[in-house]
Amino acid sequence: MTSRSLRAVHRLRWVAGRIGGAAFVVWGAATVTFLSLHLMPGSPAMAYAGGAAAHPTRAELAYVSREYGLDHSLVVQYLLYLGRLVRGNLGYSPSQQQAVSTVIRQNVGPTMELTLCSLVLAWVLAVLSSIVTVRRGRVASSIGSGLEILTASLPQYWLGILLLEVLAFHLRIFPATGGTGFEGLALPSLTLAVPLAGFIGQVTREEFEAALEQPYVTTARARGMGDWGVRLRHGLRHAILPGLTMSGWALGSLISGAVIVETLFSRQGLGNVLVQGVTQQDMPLTIGVVLVVAVVYVVANLAVDLLYQVADPRLKRA
Amino acid sequence: MTLLDAPITPLDEQPHLPPGAVHVGARRRRWPGVGPLLAGLFLAILVVAVIRPSLLAHGNPLTVDQAATLLPPSIHHLFGTDQNGRDVYTRVVYGARESLSIGLAATAVGLALGMILGLAAGLGSKWIDTVVSRFLEVMFAFPSMLLALLFVAMFGAGVTSLIIAVGIGTAPGYARMIRGQVIAVRDTPYVEAARVLGHSRKRIVFRHVLPNAMRPLVVLGTLGVGQAIVWASALSFLGLGAAPPAPEWGAMLAAGRDYISVAWWLELIPGAVIVLTSLATTALGRHIQRGIEGRIST
User: What is the reported pTM?
Assistant: First the structure.
């Protein structure tokens, strides 16, 4: 075999390994949600029926037991649970009076919109902060890095209320809650994006500084390339790449943040539904949302891992 | 570092020096800088608020005054009053005890769980290491907030539940760092030397591996407290923490949520205290970290 095809085999094996690992984690996550139903105080039938607060009747409990196969042994229940998951059946939500999968389908869109919009916005803010302030003298760069450290430590609920207070109640630029399209999305995604931008900015700044000291930058400058040209053509590319691996992690933190932001802005979405599920002790809904988010998170991380191999040509040689 | 799910600190940069060699260079400069000093001052005030809140605030945090509801900050009410006319400043001062206790307890729970898993993986057989590592991978599939919410859904809302939930949310991160730390120390030359000298496994673990692997935990713990307080306050903000009348920072946030449009001080002031506490503990943690690493950066 040529070394080239050997390398292709290696890469294929690596990709298969990563996909297998992700599948294992998804199975593990499903198992954790199953166990959480059975480890909680009270009977699983009660949990499926909406908890003690819902005061399920004897008939309802019997129906739930039959429906979910709760009179079988634990192993059989587990297999039945996995079987239902494979068929996309996440159970019935007592508090929403709907199938959990329906509730999730109705709410996944707004949350995706919010998190993706925030991710893009965070990247724009982080890159702007690096391009504008790195190597522009001590004052500019300390302002830049100081802002990044400060914003990274702001809890979303606090920043969200601050933005609401200033931009919605005083200046009346944006609506406080609701709003359609861009208007309704602006404040929530800004709230999620700013702390994240602080984190990403700290990484891109370091990489950008390092990139601007490289020989190829000196060469470009010697060729007479302008400062902005050097920054955009040679600095930026290298500054962004390492931060991209953070995007998988960033998605997880955005989802955590979305729970807060959606509640704060009374915005429709998975986070809002999840908090309702938790407060109303609706276990089928809670574990359904938690599991779906975990699967999305795992798949996103896998995608970032695979894309990174494509995006960084240096890794192909390894 | 308080963004939820944030990696607390990169520990892989830790130099693995034998005991005694750590403080070389740490005393080169006495002046710790403005940041750590301000952080220390703020934390000192907090400690007073925890031990003797009456020194800082004369009123009672639970006294209701229907004639003075929702007053904005003024000379009489430094931080304003809430919907029941209670003085927000007094409540913030008295709330320090419970809020800091929650943060400390949650960090302790997280570190304890992390240590059990991390030490088992780092010191146990290869088989245990594989099982624990796989388990951690699964736990990392859940964004921390979701892990905490799942726990609250199982055991109901309340302070105890909140503490354990935050602890569980942070435990996988601690476990992974402790495992890495133990493995790094296990493979250092001085541990190898001890092995060559014929010391027993028990002696090597307790005299060499554990003391060196555990030292960064001081930093992790300090950084973790700030993070845990923010975390717990976020869950409280959702209405899943301490019960409303208690002067606890997170509970104050939850109660003030209904008055966002009329009384900003009910949310922004307790929130600012939480942010400052978290920044102060983070600054302190970084300062200790630099001391331990023996390199004082600018």
Answer: 0.84
